[in-house]
Amino acid sequence: MIDCKPAETPMIPNQKLYMKDDVELVDKGQYQRIVGKLIYLAHTRPDIAHVVDVVSQFMHQPHVHHLKAAMRIIRYLKKTPGHGFVFRKNGHLKTKIYTDAIRSGEKGDRKSTSGFFSIFGGNLVAWRSKK
Question: Could you tell me the pTM of the whole model?
Fold first, then answer.
């Protein structure tokens, strides 16, 4: 993939991945190795976290279009080498956790939103938001 054409986005906009019948399967082991490495990388690259979650749903029976979607993530990574978190040694091991919640936030669906992020030693290590 060194000479591949870089991609502008990690996934084709509005692309839906799902299981299809009568579609060519790919090597399950190869697909699992690729997606496993992307899962590991998503810890420092939140811009790919969602699309990696999408492609990881097909680990048990990957089709050709699932592999193409995973390869597009790799092509996107080639385009954006400077993105992501860098963990630095800051001389302390203090832990900070921040949370927030909004009850009945949006007028359209009236669902609550909550989230948190945690910092360890001055580095962001975990985050989540949920509607």
Answer: 0.70
